Automatic annotation (TrEMBL):
SUPFAM superfamilies: Chemotaxis receptor methyltransferase CheR, N-terminal domain (SSF47757), S-adenosyl-L-methionine-dependent methyltransferases (SSF53335). This is protein-glutamate O-methyltransferase. It catalyses: L-glutamyl-[protein] + S-adenosyl-L-methionine = [protein]-L-glutamate 5-O-methyl ester + S-adenosyl-L-homocysteine. Signal peptide: none annotated. One of its GO terms (biological process) is methylation. It holds the Pfam family CheR_N. GO terms for molecular function: protein-glutamate O-methyltransferase activity.
Length: 285
């Protein structure tokens, strides 16, 4: 049998704990024991690509200086769960629409309307936000003065997000009128996001457990779904405290329903809703 086809030995309990600790220290992502096979297969695929046949040798490589950091960024692309879709949770997105419409109606949009999609994966969440924010500006016949920033730890996910091109099967939750206005079919049957949205959306590498890696600006909306669930509860609360400080007065924070049950912040008020979990920052909108 060719060497490259040989199975690597199973990841031992001690090795699993060691790799899990490293992942959690660096990203916040906590692995369940049931994910041992997943991590074992991702590690072994990568090790085979590089010619390693020992998990511990590869561990040393990943922890070694600049080359280790580069290797880590490849590995995290393989390990992080990046599942996402357009309009994944419409009620949460519609809340952002209503929030902006109200601001526009009350003439409270002064300056740019800025949104973060944190843990944006391959971009579908950002483009969904861009569609509804753009709708609001167009409906009010206002200049589209807004910016959406997608943030993620995975460089490969961000690269796909920037391409802004998706196969039709990814667009099942996009309504016909949204398809018509915001997506264009390419010659090979895929769909490109139109340039008026691309002009308003940018993507940036960030690790949310390192607040210094987040952009320095304050924003109107922070949208963060299906990310905190991978973190320990104390870490979720710490991250939400950082988000609270990054909102403009009156800003809106939207997370996934049930992702955090025990967080309170003196400057934030939870909205009373069953289908979405969201908080408003104190202060004038
Ligand atoms: C399951 S996806 C969620 C995508 C999207 N928010 C949604 O709800 O459809 C989780 C994303 O969080 C990213 N992520 C995980 N840990 C992160 C961290 N520490 N900093 C930034 N992004 C992280 C992953 O790379 C992945 O793209």
């Amino acid at each position: 049998m060719a060497w490259s086809l040989q199975r690597l030995p199973a990841l031992s309990e001690v090795q699993f704990v060691r790799w899990s600790k490293l992942l959690e220290e660096r990203t916040g992502i906590q692995l369940a024991h049931s994910q041992r096979t997943l991590i074992e297969s991702q590690l072994s695929i990568r090790m085979r690509e590089l010619g390693f046949d020992d998990y511990d040798d590869y561990y040393q490589q990943v922890c070694r200086g600049v080359s280790g950091q580069l290797e880590w960024s490849v590995l995290i692309d393989r390990i992080a769960i990046k599942e996402t879709s357009f309009f994944r949770h419409r009620p949460s997105l519609e809340l952002v629409r209503r929030y902006l419409q109200q601001k526009i109606n009350n003439r409270r949009v002064d300056g740019s309307f800025d949104v973060w999609s944190v843990g944006c994966s391959t971009g579908e969440e950002c483009w969904s936000l861009a569609m509804l924010v753009n709708d609001c500006f167009e409906l009010a016949s206002l200049e589209p003065y807004y910016g959406i920033t997608g943030l993620d730890i995975s460089l490969s996910a961000l690269a796909k997000a920037r391409q802004a091109q998706y196969p039709e099967r990814k667009l099942l939750s996009v309504k016909a009128d949204e398809m018509q206005r915001y997506l264009q079919m390419t010659s090979d049957g895929r769909f490109d996001v139109v340039s008026k949205l691309r002009d308003r959306v940018c993507f940036s590498h960030a690790n949310i457990i390192k607040p210094g890696s987040l952009p320095a600006m304050k924003v109107d909306v922070i949208f963060c779904q299906n990310v905190l669930v991978y973190f320990r509860r104390w870490l979720r609360r710490d991250i939400l405290n950082v988000f609270a400080e990054r909102l403009k007065p009156g800003g809106l924070l939207v997370i996934g329903t049930g992702e955090v049950t025990d967080w309170e912040h003196p400057g934030m008020r939870r909205l009373v809703r069953d289908d979405v979990q969201a908080y408003l920052r104190d202060g004038q909108e």
